[in-house]
Specification:
The complex is a heterotetramer of chains A (about 150), B (about 375), C (about 200) and D (about 350). Chain B is an alpha+beta fold. Chain B has 16 helices and eight strands. The model of chain B has no long low-confidence stretch (mean pLDDT about 85). The radius of gyration of chain C is 18 Å and the shape is globular. Chain C starts with a helix and ends in a 25-residue tail after the last strand. Classes of the chains: A alpha+beta (about 150), B alpha+beta (about 375), C alpha/beta (about 200), D mainly alpha (about 350). Chains in contact: A-B, A-D, B-C, B-D.
């Protein structure tokens, strides 16, 4: 019998304590970020889709189309082509297509690049109803940027 | 379903399809229930709705190329899976890991474990009909995700560990942030305690509900918090020490009752233990390299089979590798903890009421992609 | 302690096997040679080229296979835990599996997983059972080989109920029939699946 | 004012009140939940998201009224009305202020309870008619829950009737005139357990209106959407409005019985139109404070287990309310001068 009342009282008390907690939070400031109106700066290591790093002097991509990223990609979403040009050491990249629909952002392409020609972009506002919008031509993107 | 209702009500029992789209299954799990009124006569989980055959993928790509897959099985504690896989390959290929890298692994894995438990906590209370704790838990979890994002670059499906080390070193900002998080979280836990754990409604819903006996846990091979809630003192981190866990001092919370409340308490206590681990690991964090001195180029383990288990957030995650000496696996078996944990569901729910069975399901902490792999 | 005890108990399952010249026993020896080769290879300098290692291993295997029955008497083999991740490697004939599971069950082992391996070159399917103990660190691996064209292994789901799903999964992926299993329907694959994706000759 | 005009005006008032109330209680609920959970809640449609209910309403109304295969078409369509109509009827006797009441009936309290019982029938028919197993389970739960909770609720009401000697709601309010200590909840001299009565009545009205933590009829994490699972568009919308109208009735009744209805907490009364406004504003203040508590409770607790809910009724609420009844009777008989 005493257990009955004990449980009744402690139970009722626990309910009021719960109300107190949620009541307190009711008056506290909100913690959410109003996303489309406000934006967060991505952390330096944030992994967006990859992008080519330009050569600081020429603005051309540093990439020499060695194909290591293509080889190291688990999902096979990179396609690189390059050609030999006169007066330039190594090859010149002519085509760099990233199929972002299958990319898993593991970072093995960036890791395997010996020439420091790849990095993660900070782009995250990527949304489209069309698949084709996620097949990026990174050389185009680089040109647009500069 | 509609057409059969008339026939079904004339019988003693009727069948109810719980899922594959149901608010309490957290994903595409279907449970075929034979019900007598609201009592469950028979429950049979039906799996495979998001089966992706990761094991076959493992046989078709090099060891390194399988790394991103690890984060896509148990997406809530992806780093544990990362850890299990790289540790197994390291064991097979005899790759030395620098101490600093091991410490970083432990710190990030434990952070990941806390975030997984927090999400479970919220989702579990949501299963029981309480909405608000989920959002509070998410608030805390965001903090961890921000921390992990600052070091791994992603928020959920991490691909951070590499054979012999980790991808990035941690910096002072991360260390400071982690310490701040622990301070904040320690203050936060009493709130959860008062709002949820001590709530009479929650206690009534979990106490003595869904008992899993020691013997049942053993017969079904349940591990992790499910086993520990049944009085089994089994944690791979202590039982089969790997990485730098032997150097860290922490306890394994074990509850004898075996009911949903016990499993709940185990996880809540584990959050505190994980914070202890992180604190010590941060204190002991040695200077040095995060990758082996000699870069790991081509991983080619010797012929033979190897096993390595780690304690993921949901139990013992084991990787069995069969290597034929090539640069890809001959066979890659991934032993997922919730697969075994869920297999006891049919036996445990016999004669239970539907809401209790859902409380039990929530307390098993299911992550469906991990079950289906 | 536990390891020695369980080893002795499992040894009894070998006693009535008799002639070691049968096919399963020969396969036994190959596996034994592989495990025996592993510690030896460990001592090799790390710089050794993979090719060299491979060829050496093959050599060992060939020689071992030739005089295996004499070199390695059948029985549970203790393995190097640090290198392999398990303590006891037991290769049995399929019909001995339930007896072995029973022994382990009585010693309070729990079942970790069951899986298969497709040895297509030898036209054999291997079923691998992982057992572990809650109190003492002792991982026991039991394996059995069966003919690839008619793979059949008795079930242990009446001893370890948890094996039910593992066996169904193994049946899904490899087509190993677990005789006596109460409900050997596809679990992870679609209900009408008649293919076994983890077989080496499976092409999607 | 002729009687018929009064009735028509009142019907218009009640219908628009019930509709707007349901719409804006949803807004309140979402905003309240938002702030309790430390987020903002609706904010995009209109200032502070105030037009959100209109958008929601437009969405619900524009949806196809779809009859799922196998449903009983008559029951399926009638059920939402059977929840909505009794709730609206109950408004007839609620005194919003001393003179602002459609019909002052001497058995007003009885009438409200009579109509409240129809509500559960509507839910049951709806869940049966929709030929869905989840709905069926919800319907069965709903009936036993309502039966169980009507008992303590009625016992408590009898206590109040004993104390006030009337079942006319306006009379009950009038008997609480004066300072706020004359409100029944503070009248320990009438019954020592008056605050407990208040709690019991409030809990019962939560259960009667299927609100969390007793929302067995919906129980979305167990039964998808319970009795409403198969309802499309406005079918669900009417259920929804009925549910919120029932919450208003429950809270209004609590306010009238225990918190002095339209009485101001100070003995200050006006005549004429100002008096109506004065009374109404106090009534609505109390009403919405109670409704806010209902919302607050929903976003704080997990759902009770079904048998715990029955246990609570049969093992706790009924014995205590019975004890309370006896105590009050004794107090009235032994100390009649109080």
């Amino acid at each position: 019998m005493s257990g009955y009342f004990k449980e009744l009282i402690s139970g009722t008390k626990s309910l009021f304590i719960g109300l107190g907690i949620t009541g307190k939070y009711f008056f506290e400031p909100v913690v959410t970020l109003q996303y489309p109106h406000e934006h967060l700066e991505m952390t330096p290591r944030y992994r967006g889709h990859i992008e080519l790093i330009p050569n600081e002097e020429t603005g051309e991509p540093k990439c020499i189309a060695c194909g290591m990223c293509q080889k190291g990609c688990p999902s096979g979403c990179i396609e690189v082509k390059g050609e030999k040009r006169e007066g330039v050491k190594g090859k010149v990249v002519t085509k760099y297509i990233l199929n972002f629909t299958t990319c898993s952002l593991c970072g093995q392409c960036v890791e395997s690049c010996k020439f420091g020609a790849l990095r993660f972009s900070k782009e995250y506002n990527l949304a489209s109803p069309r698949k084709e919008d996620f097949i990026f031509d990174l050389i185009e993107k680089l040109k647009e940027k500069s | 379903m509609n057409g059969t209702l008339q026939q079904d009500v004339n019988q003693e029992t009727f069948t109810l399809n719980l899922g594959p789209q149901h608010p309490a299954t957290h994903g595409v799990l279907r449970v075929k229930l034979v019900m007598d009124g609201e009592y469950i006569v028979e429950a049979e989980p039906v799996l495979g709705y998001i089966h992706r055959m990761h094991e076959k993928m493992g046989e078709n790509r090099t060891w390194a190329k399988f790394l991103p897959n690890c984060g896509r099985m148990d997406y809530l504690s992806a780093l544990s899976y990362n850890h299990g896989y790289v540790a197994a390959v390291e064991r097979a290929a005899k790759i030395e890991v620098p101490e600093r890298a091991e410490y970083i692994r432990v710190i990030t894995v434990e952070l990941n474990r806390i975030s997984s438990h927090l999400l479970w906590f919220g989702a579990f209370v949501l299963d029981l009909g309480g909405f608000t704790p989920l959002l509070y838990a998410f608030d805390d979890r965001e903090f961890i995700l921000d921390l992990l994002e600052s070091v791994t670059g992603s928020r959920l499906t991490y691909c951070y560990f590499r054979f012999g080390g980790v991808y990035n070193d941690i910096d002072d900002a991360f260390i400071a942030g982690t310490r701040e998080f622990i301070k904040k979280q320690r203050k936060r836990m009493p709130m959860y305690d008062a709002l949820v754990t001590k709530n009479i409604i929650l206690i009534k819903r979990l106490k003595e509900i869904g008992p899993i006996s020691k013997d049942m846990a053993r017969r079904y091979g349940a591990t992790g918090p499910v086993a520990r809630g049944s009085g089994i003192n089994y944690d791979v981190r202590k039982h089969e020490p790997y990485s730098v866990y032997p150097e860290l001092d922490f306890d394994i919370p074990v509850y004898e009752e075996g009911d949903s409340m016990a499993r709940y308490m185990v996880r809540m206590d584990e959050i505190e233990q994980s914070m202890r681990i992180i604190e010590q690991a941060l204190d002991k964090l040695p200077e040095g390299e995060i990758k082996p001195k000699k870069a790991v180029k081509m991983v080619k383990p010797e012929k033979g089979d190897y096993y390595h288990a780690v304690e993921a957030a949901r139990g013992s995650f084991g990787v069995r590798l069969v290597s034929d000496g090539k640069n890809q696996a001959y066979r890659l078996k991934l032993r997922s903890p919730t697969y075994s944990n869920l297999s006891l569901y049919g036996e445990a729910t016999k004669g239970m009421l539907l809401p209790d069975a859902l409380a039990l399901m929530g307390s098993l902490d299911l992550v469906i992609p991990e079950i289906d792999r | 302690m536990l390891l020695a005890k369980i080893k002795e108990a499992l040894q009894s399952l070998y006693e009535d096997i008799g002639d070691a010249a049968e096919i399963p026993a020969a396969a036994d020896a190959v596996a034994a040679a592989a495990t025996a080769a592993a510690p030896e290879a460990e001592t090799l300098p790390e710089e050794a080229t993979p090719e060299g290692e491979e060829s050496k291993e093959e050599e060992v295997e060939e020689t071992a296979a030739a005089d295996a029955p004499a070199a390695a008497p059948p029985g549970p083999k203790e393995t190097d835990y640090a290198a392999k991740g398990y303590h006891l490697d037991v290769e049995l004939k399929p019909e001995k599996i339930p007896a072995a599971a029973d022994i382990l069950y009585r010693e309070n082992f729990f079942i970790e997983s069951i899986t298969g391996v497709d040895w297509i070159d030898e036209q054999q399917l291997e079923a691998v059972y992982d057992f572990n103990h809650f109190d003492e660190l002792c991982r026991v691996v039991i394996r059995t080989r069966t003919d690839r064209n008619n793979p059949e292994v008795p079930t242990i789901s009446h001893i370890y109920q948890g094996a039910n799903w593992h066996e169904r999964e193994t049946h899904d992926f490899f087509g190993i029939k677990f005789s006596g299993h109460p409900n050997l329907e596809p679990l992870l694959l679609p209900e009408d699946a008649d293919f076994h994706p983890l077989l080496k000759d499976f092409k999607a | 004012m002729p009687e018929w005009l009064r009735v028509i005006l009142f019907i218009i008032f009640v219908l628009s009140f019930a509709g707007l109330n349901a719409a804006y209680l949803v807004w309140c609920e979402r905003k309240g939940a938002g702030h309790i959970q430390r987020r903002i809640g609706p904010k995009e449609v209109g200032p502070f998201g105030l037009l959100q209910p209109l958008a929601d309403g437009a969405k619900l109304m524009s949806k196809q009224l779809f009859l799922p295969k196998g449903v009983d078409p008559i029951l399926f369509m009638v059920a939402p009305l059977m929840v909505m109509v009794p709730a609206i009827m109950s408004f007839c006797v609620i005194p919003f202020s001393e003179t602002f009441v459609a019909r002052e009936i001497n058995l007003g309290l009885l009438m409200i309870f009579a109509f409240a019982s129809v509500n559960v029938l509507g839910l049951l028919l709806g869940s049966w008619g929709s030929a869905n197993k989840y709905a069926l389970i919800a319907g069965a739960r709903c009936v036993s829950q309502n039966v169980a909770y009507e008992i303590p609720m009625l016992i408590t009401t009898i206590t109040m009737v004993m104390v006030t000697n009337t079942m006319n709601l306006n009379e009950i309010v009038r008997s609480q005139a004066g300072w706020f200590i004359h409100w029944h909840i503070f009248r320990l001299d009438m019954s020592l357990l008056m605050p407990v009565s208040f709690l019991i009545f409030f809990v019962c009205s939560l259960a009667e209106t299927n609100r969390a933590p007793f929302d067995m009829a919906e129980a979305e994490s167990e039964l998808i959407a319970g009795a409403y699972t198969e309802y499309p568009g406005m079918g669900f919308g009417v259920f929804f409005m009925g549910e919120y109208a029932n919450i208003v009735i429950g809270c209004a009744l609590t306010a009238i019985l225990f918190l002095g209805g339209w009485q101001a907490p100070i003995p200050l009364n006006f005549g004429g139109f100002l008096g109506v406004l004065w009374g109404m504003s106090w009534f609505f203040l109390k009403l919405y404070a109670l409704i806010f508590t209902v919302i607050w409770i929903r976003w704080t607790y997990p759902r009770t287990q079904f048998y715990e809910l029955l246990n609570l009724s049969w093992k706790v609420l009924i014995p205590i309310s019975l004890f309370n009844l006896i105590l009050t009777a004794l107090q009235i008989k032994i100390f009649p001068w109080l």
